[in-house]
From TrEMBL:
Classification lineage: Eukaryota, Viridiplantae, Streptophyta, Embryophyta, Tracheophyta
Source organism of the structure: Helianthus annuus
Positions annotated as active site in the UniProt record: H137
Family note: Belongs to the glycosyl hydrolase 28 family.
Pfam entry (one): Glyco_hydro_28
Keywords noted in UniProt: Cell wall, Cell wall biogenesis/degradation, Glycosidase, Hydrolase, Secreted, Signal
Signal sequence bounds: 1-23
Coiled-coil spans in chain: none
UniProt GO BP: carbohydrate metabolic process; cell wall organization
UniProt protein name: Polygalacturonase
Top-level taxon of origin: Eukaryota
MF annotations from Gene Ontology: polygalacturonase activity
Enzyme Commission (EC) number: 3.2.1.15
């Protein structure tokens, strides 16, 4: 562990590190949220270039910015965390992952003002399960293609519960960016991809929950590069407001939808439109 200018607590280049217990890290965020002019707040806890990291049991409250960042790490297991910040707190992601491989995040409660979990470029073989997410934005991949080529592969998000999230689960990309995201399996509901990043083999299966938005299934892809081989199966999303109607929409999205509520008939099944047969 060392002091570092861009984080409160930093563990760097440590192999076989275990951080566990029932203690609490309080970032005392309100002073930062209310006074944005005093500077850019730092992540509360950062792990960088660690191999074999194990993080469990802790409670993280009111980080000035991101609660936990995992950067350029390999073989990571994060479990049984409780991460809390007000729904209105700015940029208080629960866990941010970038440039990391073989990361397993499971059985945690994350209720913040931004993404519960955000997966950045250069990350692969990410497993997320048993997460109680919300309120907040949800679970996100990206943003991809910002200032270069980004790649995210082999992400599996399953058995997660979204409660009053803004976007559920989504892929975020920059217009004009390059790269690709494939072999992504989601248990979320928001898919927003509006650039030239190539998105394929995306699965939403076994999803149920509520959303703060009316457009609860949004497959919004680039007008020039279609999203291909999307599967939406056994998805049931309703409004967080009792009795309010919800709907789904698509832009240049190709795949198939079965057992979906609200009814989704906008996926393009044509192999010509999808640039190849569906698997």
């Amino acid at each position: 562990m060392s002091n570092h200018g861009d984080s409160w607590l930093l563990f760097s280049m440590v192999s076989g590190l275990t951080v566990s217990g029932n203690g609490q890290i309080d970032g005392q965020g309100p002073i930062w949220w209310e006074n944005a002019c005093i500077g850019t707040p730092s992540p509360a806890l950062q792990f960088k270039r660690c191999i074999g990291l194990r993080l469990s049991g802790l409670t993280h409250v009111n980080s000035p910015r991101v609660h936990i960042t995992i950067t350029t790490c390999n073989d990571v297991i994060v479990s049984n965390l409780h991460i809390i910040a007000p729904e209105t707190s700015p940029n208080t992601d629960g866990i941010d992952i970038s440039g990391s491989v073989n990361v397993n995040i499971r059985d945690s409660i994350i209720a913040t003002g931004d993404d519960c979990i955000a997966i950045g470029g250069g990350s692969s073989y990410i497993k997320i399960s048993g997460i109680m997410c919300g309120p907040g934005h949800g679970i996100s991949i990206g943003s991809l293609g910002h200032g270069g080529t980004d790649v995210v592969e082999n992400v599996d998000v399953h058995n997660c519960t979204m409660i009053k999230t803004l976007t559920g689960v989504r892929i975020k990309t920059y217009q004009g960016g390059t790269g690709y995201a494939n072999k992504i399996s989601f248990t979320g509901i928001k898919f927003d991809a509006t650039s030239a990043v190539n998105l394929s083999d995306i699965t939403y299966r076994g999803i149920s929950g509520t959303s703060n938005t009316d457009n609860v299934i949004n497959l919004s892809c680039s007008k020039t590069v279609a999203c291909t081989n999307i599967v939406v199966d056994s998805v049931h999303i309703k409004s967080a407001i009792p009795g309010r109607k919800v709907y789904g929409s698509c832009i240049n999205a190709c795949g198939r939808a079965t057992h979906v509520q609200p009814y989704l008939d906008c996926l393009k099944p044509s192999t010509d439109l999808c640039n190849g047969p569906l698997s």
